[in-house]
Amino acid sequence: MSVFGGEIPADWSIIGDSKELTIYGSHLGPFCYPKVIRGMVDGWIPTEGVVTATLPLADFEHGLHLMETGENGSIKAVLKP
């Protein structure tokens, strides 16, 4: 799960009707979560490459550093207990 810390601008002209794209989301919609999770499990929502680091829970500070700096192309880190 991710939450934005501020306003995130989006140029809808590059992802609008002319490209025939469908955007699925799960932010602030409790009924969206099952659909998005099912899409990830079934493979129609691709997730490959989203998680860029998997770290032990003890290394959470390093994980936060990766996310803050984008070091090594970091996008998302998973912490494993």
Walkthrough of the structure:
- This protein folds into two domains: 9-45, no CATH class; 49-81, no CATH class.
- Helix content is 26%, strand content 14%.
- It contains two helices and two strands, in the order αβαβ.
- It has helices at residues 32-42, 60-69; strands spanning 51-56, 76-80.
- It starts with 31 loop residues before the first helix and ends with a strand.
- Across the major sheet, the strand order is 1-2
Annotation field: number of helices: 2
Morphology: extended
Mean pLDDT: 79
Largest sheet: 2 strands, parallel
Binned, the helix content reads 25-40%
Order of helices and strands: HEHE
**Rg (C-alpha, Å):** 15 Å
Topology summary:
Layout: H1 32-42, E1 51-56, H2 60-69, E2 76-80
Parallel strand pairs: 1-2
In short:
The chain is built from 2 helices and 2 strands. With 81 residues, it is of the alpha+beta class.
